[in-house]
Design a protein that fits this description.
By secondary structure, this protein is of the alpha/beta class. Helix content is 38%, strand content 19%. Helix 6 packs across helix 7.
Length: 515
Amino acid sequence: MTTNNLVIFDTTMRDGEQSPGASMSRDEKVRIGKTLERLGVDVMEAGFAIASKGDFEAVRAVASVVKESTVCSLARAHDKDIEAAAEALEPAARKRIHTFIATSPIHMKYKLKMEPDQVVEQAVAAVKKARQYCDDVEFSAEDAGRSDPDFLCRIFEAVIAAGAGTINIPDTVGYALPHEFGALVGDVMARTANSDRAIFSVHCHNDLGLAVANSLAAVQQGARQVECTINGLGERAGNASLEEIVMAMRVRKDLMALDTRIDTTQIVPASRLVSSITGFAVQPNKAIVGANAFAHEAGIHQDGVLKHRETYEIMAAEDVGWSANRMVLGKHSGRAAFKSRLEELGIEPGDDNDFGDAFVRFKALADKKHDIFDEDLVALVSGNESMDGAAMFTLTNLNVTSQLGTNPNAAVSLDVQGEGVDSSAQGDGPVDAVFKAIEKIAQSGCEQKLYNVNAITSGTESQGEVTVRLERAGRIVNGVGADTDIVVASAKAYLHALNQMMRPQLRQHPQASGV
């Protein structure tokens, strides 16, 4: 089935969450879901309902609040997976079950331990099962990029006949080159007898840095859905980047005359929200959403842009949201303005007590910082531990002394489940001293894997946003903290990570879902 519209299928909350350390809470997924709805994505994959109680509840929560976009849950080609997906999606105004099974010889032989005939039979049964719960069913052939094209045609024809309306061809391991992947998609579409009854989709991974190129090559061959993520987030090297796909379609309409529903002015706000929630900073030279994406250093470039923008810019910064949503709050802003802006950003602080706490933190920040931008509000709420339940460790006081020629000393006071505990330590720097003082109390046994500092906005009074990644027994978590004092932000980030590590692990996939 070919149309003049390109369906944008966002899998930030499912495949994006499979990045080590990128797990999202239910409330965080709700915020991302609302943001994706404002962005205009056609389909959002909210999670893998069978994976865990936490994933099930997150899918259900997103399904309950999103009305304009289709909400989707992934499911293996098993009855229990499909039943869990259907139950989680029950509140959705528009719902889709996305079922998959591997089709490459290596996966069928070594992972599934099944013969091709058995794979086709199970795929057909899964699609028929899913159709009992909803009309919108997608089927994915995992590792299609390394599958036999003849077998793909066979299984696709069978699942379309069984009721699948979308057929997804994933390059699961990011192995394909654009010319061969485009040719594969075109060939399979041409040779699948009933291909006119389904929309063909692609889901490309970025292991060779070709996910976007492969996706666009498939679109040129007739694919009419692209599965992608905000900031290209995803396991290993990530997925095709939504912002790059959408803007390539817009800028190069001469080659791909297709429309999307995306409101491009919402791209940068969505990018910043996902970055803040996951702790995965966007590299400055990242296309579209990187801080340097529209910056010009060379004099020749600057001169050209000043004379005529299109000499060196193929799109306008404001088109993707760099100047959108810039309502500035300050210390004179009231509760109504604060609440209104949070709602516009898709942030729900919860009950009156949670909102009151958030407003107090907002006023405290306003006393330190003259202008408060959207990015500050996102960071303010993202760093609020109460949003995700009671914290085991809460910072109550911090005193750091640092003098040239001596090791800094940090004195830390924590509330540990209602009990005040003090500690002090020296370190190679003030942040190192703080972390060591916290660890004297926590005794977590965690290994620090990442420490990253990012300025949320420009200027010396900007908040600093710190990301700390910890690992223990193979589990990886990210902690995020923001403050105008970078040492305080670091302490908040470390404690945020510790509190996540101390909770039961909510996300335990029964099988790697590397579609």
